[in-house]
Amino acid sequence: MTRVRTAEFVGAVGATGQKPPRDLPQIAIAGRSNVGKSSLLNRLVGRKNLARTSKQPGRTREINFFLVDDRYLLVDLPGYGFARAPKNVRKQWGRLIDAYLRQTPPLLGLVLLVDGRRGLTDDDRRMVEFLEGLGTPTLFALTKTDKLNRSGRRRAVEGLRDALGLDEDQLVETSAQTGLGMGTLLESITALVAEAETR
Ligand code: GTP
Ligand code: MG
């Protein structure tokens, strides 16, 4: 089984124009505020408090970079769609994420998180369209599935697959609480990294 050996915080970017801290392949984790991005990152690398998590939406305000196995960067993005944030702050986040996603060299891929209980939001749909435009390879992860029963999970999976026309292996059911889906996700991530390394 794929496992992470080392993970460490290596830097943050809070304004457009700043460069990532390392020149390494990057995989980003995106999704609306409070969907569970930081929690999923921590669970993926097996380090409880590496990325800061919070019950309060809007916890992660900068783009945070984590070096994994001295080989690639996992990137924790600030969440979008946080309705209570002031307008100018929301605008600034949008610009920051937009500039990050358009960077060169491009991201290897992105994991887009969708809350299993809520389904797709309008912001999610905008994000998906934006990523399609950029051609960024995207994996989808349903989060917090520990809060759903079996039929709820099935409904969430089918709903998302139908809405976005996803392939079977493009969607992973996850829980940062139980660890569900982490092995699968990590395998997809390391496969992308390995492929990039042979280029
Ligand atoms: P922002 O940084 O604000 O964009 O949020 P985020 O997407 O990083 O979410 P975060 O990881 O901080 O988690 C938000 C809340 O959801 C916290 O209270 C977490 O404990 C909870 N949470 C995250 N993942 C799970 C999960 O898999 N299961 C359950 N039950 N709760 C979760
Ligand atoms: Mg966060």
Descriptive report:
- This protein is an alpha/beta fold and about 200 residues long.
- The protein has a single domain, classed as P-loop containing nucleotide triphosphate hydrolases (Rossmann fold).
- The protein is about 35% helix and about 20% strand.
- It contains five helices and seven strands.
- The chain has helices at about 35-45, 85-100, 120-135, 150-165, 180-199; strands at about 5-15, 25-30, 65-70, 70-75, 110-115, 140-145, 170-175.
- It has a seven-stranded mixed β-sheet, with helices on both faces.
- Strand 6 (about 140-145), helix 4 and strand 7 form a beta-alpha-beta unit.
- It is globular, with a radius of gyration of 16 Å.
- The two termini are about 25 Å apart.
- The mean pLDDT is about 90.
- The structure holds guanosine-5'-triphosphate (GTP) and magnesium ion.
- The site of magnesium ion has 5 residues, from helix 1.
Give a nutshell description of this structure.
By secondary structure, this protein is α/β, with parallel strands linked by helices. It is built from 5 helices and 7 strands.
Percent of residues in beta strands?
Answer: 15-25%
Rg (CA only) = 16 Å
Query: Strands of the biggest beta sheet: in what spatial order?
Result: 1-3-4-2-5-6-7
Major sheet: 7 strands, mixed
Number of helices: 5
Q: Under the CATH scheme, which class?
A: Alpha Beta
Order of helices and strands: EEHEEHEHEHEH
CATH superfamily: P-loop containing nucleotide triphosphate hydrolases
Structural class from helices and strands?
Answer: alpha/beta
* Outline: globular
Mean pLDDT: 92
CATH-derived architecture: 3-Layer(aba) Sandwich
**Helical fraction:** 25-40%
CATH fold label = Rossmann fold
User: Which hetero ligands occur in this complex?
Assistant: guanosine-5'-triphosphate, magnesium ion
Distance between the termini: 24 Å
Number of domain units: 1
Strand elements, count = 7
